[in-house]
């Protein structure tokens, strides 16, 4: 396309009209928006003789084959140009649906033969115009991806509005996510603090329980010692009394 843009700077009238036809036939050229905006090309719109060439170029930029077929004031296309416009039309159709029935494609592209339609689609896939698969059993084309086409006049503002709405929605979603993350973080912090307090109280309770157990064991041991001492004293007194009794008898 760069070569055609350079030539368009100096081509006027018939030369510019022929330049358009050459660009439409050029292999690998599928985007024409810049050429449409070229000053010399725009001049053709006011020419009675070459106005059709200008409108034909606009169809290749963002129109469809069905629009071409419905018009009687556009230059005749050769087979290569017809195939290119049909393939670009498939791109436009895939914007509204990723599953395109053969019946719909035949109607939009004005093709009666299914084999011819499938060959056209296969060429479009090889040219990277679309990515998809032919579903011969389901009689449809399943589009996975497609190249971008130029925007129609007035669509730029609509696209900007769509992007603005998308940005605002994204910002709201991100704000909501941030709020949820903040709540989760606070909840985790509260849980960690509660867990730490619980573990501290549990450890303190264990220490108190150990101290109480130690005191209880100490008191129990002291009681046994006293009983042993008292028992020993009693036995000693009884022994002394018995000795005294024997002495008196003697």
TrEMBL record:
It comes from Chytriomyces confervae. SMART domains: PINT. It comes from the Eukaryota. InterPro entries: COPS7/eIF3m, PCI_dom. Residues 241-250 have a biased composition (Basic residues). Residues 1-148 form the PCI domain. Residues 217-229 have a biased composition (Basic and acidic residues). Keywords: Signalosome. GO terms for cellular component: COP9 signalosome. This is PCI domain-containing protein. Belongs to the CSN7/EIF3M family. CSN7 subfamily. Residues 207-250 are annotated as: Disordered.
